[in-house]
Amino acid sequence: MKSKLFAVLVCLAVCAGFAFSAKTPKVIVTSSYGKVFVKLNQTANWTKCYTGMTLDENASIKTEAKAKAEIMLYDGSKLTIKPKSEMFIKILTDSQKALEQRAGKVRYKISKLAQGRSFECKTPTAVCSIRGTEFSMDIGENDQTELKVFEGLVAAIGTDGKEFEVGPGKKMEFLTNVPPEDPSSFDTEDNEEESKNQQESEKMATQAEINMDLSKEAVQQMAATEMKLAEYQQGKTIIDVFGKRVRIEEYIVRGSAVGLGANQYKMVVLNSRKDRFDWYTWIPTFANNFTSIAEANEWVGWRNGDVAPDNYLLSTEFGASNTVDNSKWGYTGGRVIDDPSIAQTQNLVFDNYYFKLNDVTMISYVPAGAAGSHINNFSTDAVWTVNDPSVSGTMTSAQFETWYNTGYLLPSGDDKMHSRFEFGFAGGTYTEDTYSIDDYGKVPSLTDYAGDKLKYNMELVMFYDGFTGTDKKIDLCVEPKIFMDSGLVK
Amino acid sequence: MIKKIILAVGVLSSFTLASFGSDIATVLNVKAFGGQYSYEGESASNGNLNIDFVPAMKFSDKFSFLPALYVEYRGVKDVTELVGGEKLLQQSASYNLSLRPVYKIGENTKLRAKVGYFKQMIIEAKDESWGNGAFDYAKTSVGLDVSKKNINIGYSMYIIAFPNYASLVSQTSGQFGVSATDIGKNLLDFMANEVSLYGKFYPLSGFVVDWSFAYTMKSFNDQTIQLDNGVYNASQKRADTVMGVGLFPSFAIVPTGPLTMFGGLSINYVSNASNQNRYDTAKKQFIEKDYDYTETKIAPIISFSFNTVPLKLDFSYEIGSRAYLNRLVQDVAGVYGTDKIKTDTTYLSLGLTYPLSEKLSLKGIYGSYNSSSSMKYEQVYKYTYQTSNMFLGVAYEL
Question: What is the span of the domain harbouring residue A314?
């Protein structure tokens, strides 16, 4: 941050340096079209004029046929120099401004002058004093000058020295060696010309209105962008592994009103895509009641230790659905056993496990022995059953592990965080794909994932031939922390 | 979208015909650019198009009417946009239709009213198409402002609605123990009342200071407040207030030889205060007033014109800093710390304009944006990154 601030200070210092060593420009060419030339002082040569150029006292600007230029004086006055015109900037000080129009037609829009300041425009046959007005002067053949006033008042003096006051909608002609006549009203042609000019100035005013409107709009639209930003920051929307947008909402609910005991809570994760809606729930049930989620959370991940825990899980049960099909799995019959023969003497063991698809049990284990038996040694005490027609009878833990590992695949290669379990259940093939994905749906390499497991979201896709919902699958995107807390991911 | 634009043009044309007899000054600005957006070594190319069409009607010296249609297509992301969604593939299209009567009530005083409708469609994912983007939104606004000389005071009321972003829980039948009654349905929609003041003053010759102030009150009538145990208080709705202050002193100088420099310093400060809290369900962390933040942006802006070539160069370098007042930092694994999130940004912008004719100019723009944050948990959102884009195109002004 300091280095960035330093960069800004350097920029400012450069500007300030320029500012102190430079002077303020008095005239800026705001628009230049066609063959427009400038002479920076009276002895210089004519050179091409560009938009953005600056001029000072003693500079001249001229336009050729079909060319046009607009200049702005530092007090905000604007001059439109029409084709075949020439203007000389004689004096430009705070108290006095004097311009000489030497040929052609120029329209002046002069800013209001403060008391004691003067603005004078001179042609070969007339001199006009202005206090803040809009007018044009057109020098024709034999240096004849036509003055037209559109706004305000112009004091005009001809070659005979007589002064006339010319008001809006009036015009006057000044000829060489001929006394001017009194001002007369605009005729139809003048009005048409004025109407065209008015349109031009309306256009400029409209452009200013557009700029003002758009900058206000931009601020209001930022408010909408902020809403979107917050949704992304809170992980409420991500892109899945298939490039589809997933919206995610997560809730925690408690209490008897939702059918839960004082020793339970329920986490709900809702996923929505354009063409599907999936959800996931997790209900941990604790041995003892708790008052706050934070208190329960201290024990939710407890599996073993040297001392008996204050609280522990009796069961941890999950549900997932695409609103038509469901998958349910869970561990129940949680007990803490004290086994002095192992390093960490206190261990949480679940007596039962089940995995169901559309309410049909596909995998389960129970304690060996008669009803009321418990599992003390998982290797020897658990009896597994799988709903696989190729397997007959029950299995030991070792046999189950062999069966289970046969279904384990790495479809995207050994170095991608995409794994699959594929089983042939009685109702058809079941596949369970687990992807680690970044926020944009990309699957990381094993190396990247190992470096930072929690950096990635998880996508769990359960496909089953026996499902009838959209694509015969349940497709869940969940933060890995949720899966980790629930024991699904280690 | 195209039908709606045609309809909008039709509406504007009707007003134009209705104004038969008035003076019409039409402003038509068209900008067409091709460009490229780059992020972390990957890039995507596309184009941007902007059309501003305003047939301004002057009925009398006192009364004007400005119907306006702004249309925009953006295929190249702006560097300052958040890096979310399909970071490279974002496209957006919008139209903005407004009607603005302007009444001159004194020599230097104008009264403006406005009724406007803005619609933006955004495609960020492969399964989104025009009109069904999750973050498509519409803004309906009315406003009134008075300007006198160099000061403008305005009031706007606008409603922003995200039609495709209803809460997911509102799409369930309450079987999970939570419902839209508790949480709300149209969570992102809000109504805003905004008071703004802006103007300029001239302290020295050739020196201008633009200033602005805005105060906005937002009401989220369908978003309830989340409490420290993760549940929602259905009787209390979210309300935010946003205050923004801006200052932009600028000047024009001729430092040396054939060079003219227009310099300025843009300073902006925004503070957002909200009564909404957040309970991180996955990590069981409660953050009170999660949305409160202050943001400061400072940018020197410099333009160069030359007396020897018709070229204009623009340069700006903005540094910004957003500090959340309560939102806590997290480490890469998501574990909460005790410090508050602070994100610093820099935005370098270079522009080039070369006139091809009176109305047409060639433009080139390069932008580079850097964001770095004390927030290290980037599983769901990128806080530290660098993006750049560049454009080349033409601008036409009728």
Answer: 233-485
